[in-house]
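Consider the tokenized backbone below.
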């Protein structure tokens, strides 16, 4: 897991990261940072190895600098709360609940084995799936820079759901399962 986090941090600090491409590449990297080459042809395998080396070199370069920041789980919670406060202030959302953030090893049932990085459950989805109305981030993907992007994405879902009339939100659990609309 530590190796995959190092690669994520390396990705974030590359000069011009392409997150859509990174998301696709990470499907083929195990938690130890090794390529999963099953079902890949020789060219794809070579490309994957080159990408992993690029990410690793970026991380090694970053760690040699004095201003490198590592964060523990508690520090992420502080950072996330500050982000939410700034977001709500910026958009003048004074009469709306702020979301709870949970950094978890796995998502609530039935999403325990999903490969998403973050999920958001509104009030109706939480009732439907018997979980808390929260934003969930998988701990194995917490990396400075990447986590903030995931939270910002899920936060937008949360705020939009708060602004939508409550009676329309009750139809979202079915959309959530069928179209994965609320998943990063």
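A designed sequence for it:
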């Amino acid at each position: 897991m530590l190796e995959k986090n190092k690669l994520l941090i390396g990705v974030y600090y590359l000069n011009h990261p392409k997150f859509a491409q990174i998301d696709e590449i990470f499907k083929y990297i195990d938690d130890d940072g090794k390529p999963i080459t099953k079902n890949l042809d020789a060219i794809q395998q070579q490309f994957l190895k080159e990408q992993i080396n690029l990410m690793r070199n970026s991380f090694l370069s970053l760690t040699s600098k004095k201003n490198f920041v590592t964060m523990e789980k508690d520090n992420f919670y502080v950072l996330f709360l500050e982000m939410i406060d700034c977001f709500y202030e910026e958009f003048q959302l004074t009469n709306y609940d702020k979301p709870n953030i949970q950094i978890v090893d796995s998502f609530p049932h039935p999403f325990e084995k999903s490969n998403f990085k973050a999920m958001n459950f509104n009030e109706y989805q939480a009732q439907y799936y018997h979980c808390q109305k929260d934003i969930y981030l998988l701990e194995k993907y917490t990396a400075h820079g990447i986590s903030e992007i995931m939270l910002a994405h899920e936060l937008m879902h949360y705020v939009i759901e708060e602004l939508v009339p409550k009676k329309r939100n009750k139809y979202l659990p079915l959309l959530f399962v069928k179209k994965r609309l609320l998943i990063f």
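Residues 173-184 have pLDDT under 50 and may be disordered.
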